[in-house]
Amino acid sequence: MPSIGLHHYLALSAVVFCIGIYGMLTRRNAIGVLMSVELMFNAANIALVAFGRFVTPQLVTGQVVAAFTIAVAAAEATVALAIVLLIYQHHRGIDVDRINIMKW
Amino acid sequence: MDPITLAFLALAFLIIVASLFVVSSRNIFHSAIFLILALFGVAGIFVLLEAPFLAAAQVLIYVGAISILMIFAVMLTARIADGQLRYTNEQVPTGLLVSLGLLVVMLYSLWQTPIPTSAAAPVSGAGRKLGELFLTQYVLPFEIISVLLLTALIGALVIAKKDPRAASAADDSAADVPARERERAVV
Fold it and tell me: Which pTM value belongs to this model?
């Protein structure tokens, strides 16, 4: 078996990303959808850091972008969970199937 | 097999299995726990990729903050014991088709693309370099990220603040018990 290289990390990233897409498309619970989105963020981060490590090992640009991604993901999760709580207050449920109006 | 290969395989297995449980677990609380496991695995992958700062940030921000936030939201909204409710919508075949199709396309293109890799040793002291870059070349995005985080914080506070119309019915402690019973009756 060849030693672990860029392609292995990218394949792992692709697998995790597709699992996230599946969860995002099929979950009914809004928090489940958010968790799937976090999985996709992580897949992208793995790809970014792996590219940085194997293509430009002398620079840390990939890590810089991944750090920004983590910060944006934190902001996204905060706002999204606040919205979920608000939806729960209004609908007494967070099934994304039933949230079909954007105005309350 | 050298230890790096072994560690990568173990972490990849952990991440993939945990991710599958995240998207397929019936109980949303179990999903949150498996999400933590998967995020830990990603932190391990960052260690293997010689990005120690990112591994630490991953544990602090994802495992420590975002997952706990998710668990809080689960506790505040979902009825934990609703195992018998449907947890997927009717898009399971479509979702499987889309995700598997995308996976096949991505893996195939990955297989076909020669990526010019460099065999040079990774830069030593990546954390120090990262800090320098944040405060020199990437100082503008860095500051914008700070403002974004602050905005998101304030926005979340404003959004999650109780709506006075909804609060008038539910916030009163005397009306709390009937409200809950009504909720149960709706279920």
Answer: 0.84
**B1-81 carries CATH number 3.30.70.260:** no
The predicted-structure confidence for A62-92, as pLDDT tens digits, reads as follows 899 999 999 999 999 999 888 888 888 877 7
Nearest to A35 among B35, B61, B106 (CB): B35
Q: What tens digit of pLDDT does each residue of B82-123 get?
A: 554 666 777 888 889 999 999 999 999 988 888 887 777 777
Asked if A63 and B53 count as a contact pair (C-beta separation under 8 A), the reply is yes
Question: Where do the structural domains in chain B lie, given as residue ranges?
Answer: 1-81, 125-187
CATH of domain A6-91: 1.10.287.3510
Cβ-contact B34, B25 below 8 angstroms: yes
User: What is the predicted ipTM?
Assistant: 0.90
Contacts of B123 in chain A (CB under 8 A): 57-60
Chain A CB contacts of B62 under 8 Å are: 38, 42, 70, 73
8 Å CB contact between A24 and B99: no
